[in-house]
Amino acid sequence: MELKSKYYHSLEENLQKYGIPAEAVKTAQDSIQFPEESTLSILFFLIT
Amino acid sequence: MDNSAAMKEQSERRNQNFVDVYEGRIPQELPISVGVDGAAALEYAGKNLLTDQYSAEAMIEAMDYVNGLFDTDQVVGFSSRLPSFYQLLGAENYKMGADGFMQHPNIAGMEPEDYDALIEDPIAVCWEKVVPKYYKELAKPFPHNVIAILKFQASRQAIMSKVGPAMAQLAVKYGKLTRSFSAGRTRAPFDLLADTFRSFTGALSDIRRMPDKVLAAVEALYPLCIKMGLTNAKPSKTLRVGIALHMPTFMREKDFAKFWWPTFKRQVEEFMNIGYGVYMFCEDDWMRYLDYLYELPEGCEMQFEYGDPKIIKEKLGKKHIIQGLYPVSLLRTGTVEDVERKAKEYIDILAPGGNYIFGTDKGVLRASDAKVENLQALLKTVREYGKY
User: Fold this and answer.
1) What ipTM did this prediction achieve?
2) Rounded Cα gap, residues B206 and B194, in angstroms
3) Mutation for testing the B interface, residue in A2, A30, A47, A48 having most B CBs under 10 Å
4) Residue B169 belongs to some domain of the structure
5) Which of A12, A16, B304, B387 lies 20 to 30 angstroms, CA to CA, from B105?
């Protein structure tokens, strides 16, 4: 089930948001999407 | 065999005992799941809870001490809920008590009028409502809030960059588990609603006052609860998504069946369909819900706090992995002989046929919860008596 929020974005959405070429979907997992996932993990720590 | 080779062999044997149970085989020896909290470790090591929880070095010394003292399977003696993290954020949800022990007050992260926003976007409600309510420093305007969260993250990194490697070294030193059997930790959707957003009493009141909103909210929280439990680790039955179950025993069965159970059952099924195992801690007394638990996919690990071990074994033991039940209170009040007798009693009931991990009804939170000689006797008895 997909997680939707104005504060959580998929890699594809982030590439668009930050003006990164769509072809970078293969290379931007660590540099772009990891911080998104890591921020969500921090949120989980804060709310539980 | 020199000591390090013996410890390596012991680690591998203990790893295998867990793997065997999780993969549906009878292990050579009972795996043991007995936790000792970070506060208890500091106290056993003679350290000061008020001051030493701020020092990674002091906590590592305490962990070294308790892991040598107690022959547990897991490395024990650390708690991730450290005061520095919460004090840097001005936390209202975790506060240090007068004796240094961390307390968790029951507070509501949002008001009843926020339900529609929660149903629309739970993560937004977390950032916009819950976090500022829980953390005074994060409710302040920019740049104070950003500076506070950067300090919090730096503190976590400073502690964990030392504690993480130290725990791995202690596993090798004392022949404990060197494999991780833990995937992520999450909550049941209704428990998350109660614990984080509406408080224990607020959630129970909302069931009566606005049942449709509650049902919509637990559905909205479902994807978040799935996400919380997932990790990057390759799915495996030996990797367990952990879920502590809080609210059911405080609910009427018809409310449990309507509001709590459906999303939880679906959540467990989804984790297991992905390929993970699930560990759940059934807090309090779940005897009236055993038939529900039976419905879950085969191979769930269920730690029980209270209940009749014979009935639990009879109803669930062929399908699920039973854990827990051994009363920690006996480690405080009993004699060594009482502790040994009770351990054999539980093993005689729960071990036949496998599907059993020896465990206590709860972790040892404070040193006063368990006399050293009693916990040592318990572990020794399970090692000697718990063989197949």
Assistant:
1) 0.95
2) 10
3) A47
4) yes
5) B304
